[in-house]
Amino acid sequence: MMGGRFRVAGILLIACLVLLFGMISVFAQDEIEVDDVSVDDTEEVKSHGSFLAGVREFDSNLVVEMGNVTVSYTIYNIGDQSAFEVELEDIMLTSEDFEAVDGVTSISFDEITPGSSVSRSVTFIAKSAGYYGDSPKSSVYKPSAAKISYATERTSDTKRVHYIASKGILVVEDVESFKKRTDKHILDWIAFSTLSLLFTAVPYAISQSSLSKLDKRAVRKTK
């Protein structure tokens, strides 16, 4: 019995050793293959050209209708080559809803070098109440605040087009809603105070008159 148990234990030990050496050899081959691929990938790195990204920001996220709001646009060249004939168009803040009072809405740049950024600011009068901006989801998957077009080569006739997102949402509040929200209601408080005094003073005067009559009657009876 003891000899049979030792034989089984020896077979299991040999099987474990064979399995262990097999796994070590597989891992070693995988490491060699990964190293080879990384070397090949490094040798085959190619230029990706120019690539522009951007963002639009508001100086305030709440403005009253016919009030001023300053909008800042920043464009980044995250590529490794220059971008040429860059044009930016805000497709959300249209002339029907916003009027430019400081700065120009036709924003353009002759060249944006790799790794650099450019900025422009425009002040608008908000003429229409509403919400203007991208939701958190659309700002990631489908930005629609403004459009950037640019050429990857100086003499190229074709242009790339990208859309940028808005950092935050601009709320333009109508005048009536603003007045209701911020009005101190002075006339209402005066009317309320007057009515409160009347409701308090009239019963008090009646009670005092009744007490005075009772006192007079009590004095007459004692006499």
UniProtKB/TrEMBL annotation:
* GO terms for cellular component: endoplasmic reticulum
Q: Where is the signal peptide?
A: 1-28
The regions listed as transmembrane in this protein's record are 186-206
Q: Which domain of life is it from?
A: Eukaryota
Q: Which UniProt keywords apply?
A: Membrane, Signal, Transmembrane, Transmembrane helix
> What is the official name of this protein in its record?
Translocon-associated protein subunit beta
Native organism is Timspurckia oligopyrenoides
